[in-house]
Amino acid sequence: MLQLKDLSHAYDEAVSLRNVNLTVANDEILCLLGPSGCGKTTLLRIVAGLIADYGGDVLLDGRDLRRSAAHERGFGLMFQDFALFPHMSVFDNIAYGLRRRRMAPTDIGLRVELMLDQVGLGGYGERDIGTLSGGEKQRVALARSLAPEPRLLMLDEPLGSLDALLRDTLALELKEIINGAGLCALYVTHDHREAYAIADRIAVMDKGTIRQLDRPFDLYHHPIDENVARFLGFSNIFQFGDNRFTRELWRKFLPDAAASDAFLIHPDGIELDKDTDPAAIAQRGRIESSVFRGEYSEVTIYMPQEGLSLRCKSRDGNPAVGGSVAVSVKSEAIRLLK
Q: Are 178 and 153 in contact (CB under 8 A)?
């Protein structure tokens, strides 16, 4: 439905977007993921019509939007701070865009009540915005964005101001609501866990370009290069000559790779204190740290002979710091990085 062709933009002389090409399908939630300053919000604002000075093309169903003002595009936009009107009731906030379109009052009432039910706030219409919790305000902002039935919904860090527990809950609710409305959505965030939870596909951005575009499962298991891997929180990144252990892994599992290439040892592919598989490469190490994460413990192993640390996951309790442990790495744990 939405196509971006060679999209470019610069602030003063600093390039913020560089020849970005992207297609977003109907009924798809595509997440723009990246650190601050990578260009994701600039891209969103260009699509919304809030930035007019850009290179390339923005197409909706094949139609060029360059001459279409922001209010003519029929898009919904939701910000991190929600941008609700504090002097208006919940009902009036949601009805604001509908009134600007001069919808009949009876139809406005029906539409607002439908939106409140859809976001789980039935009966909240007469409440003041100031009496709502952060999660309730987020739902009102979403209902206001959905009320005019937008072709495309754009969300800029919509959960960024909420606490971690509420973010996890609302991310799932957002996905259900957007999918239930049958919408195409562009979702901006810097949090990869949030992106995994809500997106159908994720575009990882860095320095104005898209480094990788993939489904959440494939992005997590196969980051394309070192920058993407580090941004996703992976730290087991090495090169051929780093130490004897990594050279052994390299020779066994990456015989055709160049010595200048980097590779990732994925933490999900490392086993601790299991019977060593002949197909694996094993080494002993000392447990430097062990952080309980609920379903697993995040464990850092230091190998004194090699002078390296590996981070992995243990699903067999919370190993004691200082203990000795066998580390086993199989071929499926190795990812060659560009």
A: yes
Tell me the per-residue pLDDT of 127-158, one tens digit each, with 9 for 90 and over: 999 899 888 888 898 899 888 888 899 999 88
* AA letter at 81: D
Residues 6 or more apart whose CB falls under 8 angstroms from that of 210 comprise 20, 21, 22, 203, 204
Q: Which residues pair with 184 in a beta bridge?
A: 152
Which is nearest to 93 in space by CA: 32, 19, 16, 147? 147
Q: Where are the beta strands (DSSP E) in 25-98?
A: 29-33, 55-60, 63-64, 75-78
Task: Evaluate if residue 275 carries a pLDDT over 70.
Answer: no
Specify whether the CB–CB gap between 129 and 85 falls below 8 A: yes
Contacts of 316 (CB under 8 A, 6+ apart): 272, 273
| Dist. CA 270–CA 333, nearest whole Å | 7
Q: What is the pLDDT of residues 90-137, one digit of tens each?
A: 999 999 889 888 889 999 999 999 999 988 899 999 999 989 988 888
Three-class SS of residue 76?
strand
Helix (H) or strand (E) holding 21: strand 14-24
Residue 12 tokens, joined: 């003063």
Distances (CA, A) of 197 to 173, 201, 232: 10, 11, 14
**CA 12 to CA 257: how far, in whole Å?**
41
* DSSP 8-state assignment for residue 276: P
